[in-house]
Amino acid sequence: MVRAPDGTVRTVPAVRKKGTTVRDAGIRQYRYVAKVTGLRPATTCRYRIATGSGSTRWRRFRTAVPEDAAFTLLQFGDTQIADAGVPQRIVDAAAARFRDARLMLLAGDVVDRPWRGAEWRALHRALAPPGTFRSVVAAIGNHEQCRLTSACRSGNGAGFRSYFHGPTNGFPRQHRTWFHTDVGAARIIVLDSFGSDLPRQRRFLRKALRTNDRPWSIVLVHSGPFASWPDRVSSTMRSTFLRTLERHGADLVLSGHDHSYARGMKAGVTYLTSVSGPKYYASSARDWRRGGATRRAWASRTSTYQAITVTPDRITVRAIVGHRADGARPAARVGDVLDRFSLRR
Questions:
Q1: CA distance 135 to 147
Q2: Second CATH level (architecture) for the domain 64-344
Q3: Which of 95, 112, 185, 259 can bridge 275 by disulfide, Cβ–Cβ 3.0-4.6 Å?
C-alpha cells in the first residue's frame, strides 16, 4: 500500500519472486516485488506491506529528484565479512552524516558465504534502517555466485537474485544482474563482471551510454578494468569493456573486489575502487600501469564509503574513512575525507 502526500492510498499488488532454498541461501523464503507508477519527483510518500494476517507500520520514502536537481548518493565497496560489525558501523555513520542521501550503491561481494542464512540476515540488519527509506542498487559480486571461490554453493546467485531486484530496460535477453536506471542528472549502469554473457553486456553498455540523455554516466561493477591487488590482472574486463567506456562517454566507474582504495584515470574516464568491510589486500599500481591508466590516489587497510553529489554540471566525490586496521596507510582518522575530487562539464 502506498500513501501519497495528499493522503490518497493505493493498493499495489505484489508479484512473488523465485524463492531461496536452505541449500543455496541458508533459508527457504520467498520475496515479493511491487511496481508503483505515477509518482511525482522529489516527493515524500509512505508505504506499508499488507498481508492477510496483518501489515507493517507505515514507512516513508522519497522519490528521485528531477534531472535538473542536485542529489547525493552513498556508495560502498565490498562489505562481505562480518556485516554486523564494521560494515554496519560504516553504513550507519554514512546515513547519519548524509541524511539527505536517498540512494545507496553496493559494489558486490555483500556476503562471503552465500549458502549461510546468517550472513544474509547480518547484511539486511546492516542496511536497516537506512535501506527502508533509501533506494538500494547493487552489483553482484563473485562470492554471491561462487566464482573464484572453492567449496561454495549459491544456486547461481539465488540469494542475491532474490534479495535484490533490478529493472529491465528492454534489451534482448537482459539479465536482472545488469541494467540501468536514471536518477537526477545521472544514468547509473550496473554490470555483472563475472557473468557468462560479457559480450552481450558490452552491447548493452554501449547502448546505455549512447542513448543516455542525462549529463552523466556512472557505471557500477564488482570488478573494474584495473586491479589494485598486486597478484591480480583485470585483462578480461579491459578487453571487454574498456574501449566501450572510453568511446561512448562513461564518466565514473565504481567497483570493489580488490579490498583496498584506489582512484585513477584513463582517456577521460575516472575509476574508483573501494572496500567497506574489514577484509584487506595489498595495494599496487602495477595493473593500472599495465592497462595504460594513471593511479592518482590510494590507501591500504582502510575502509571507506563514498559520498557522491551529482548536479547537471558537476560530480563531487568524497571518500570518507569508515574503519582502519593495523598498518593502515596513509595516516588518517575515522571520519576524515581520505580523497576528494570533482568532475566538471
A1: 27
A2: 4-Layer Sandwich (3.60)
A3: 259
pTM of the model: 0.96
Cα separation, 91 vs 83, whole angstroms: 10
CB atoms within 10 A of CB 48: 13
Which residues fall within 8 angstroms of residue 37, CB to CB, at 6 or more apart? none
Q: In this structure, what are the phi and psi dihedrals at residue 312, rounded to the nearest 5 degrees?
A: -60, -25
Residues 6+ apart with CB under 8 A from 343: 216, 251, 252, 270, 314, 315, 317
Across residues 128-152, what is the average pLDDT?
92
Q: pLDDT tens for residues 59-110?
A: 998 999 999 999 999 999 999 988 889 999 999 999 999 999 989 999 999 9
Cβ 259 vs Cβ 280: under 8 Å: yes
d(CA 216, CA 311): 9
Amino acid letter, residue 94: A
The DSSP output letter for 134 is S
Q: Span 141-162, mean pLDDT?
A: 94
Q: 318, 299, 319, 310: which is closest to 345 by C-alpha?
A: 310
φ, ψ dihedrals at 155, nearest 5°? 60, 45
The mean predicted confidence, pLDDT, of the chain is 95
Give Cα separations from 291 to 52, 226, 246 (angstroms).
57, 7, 13
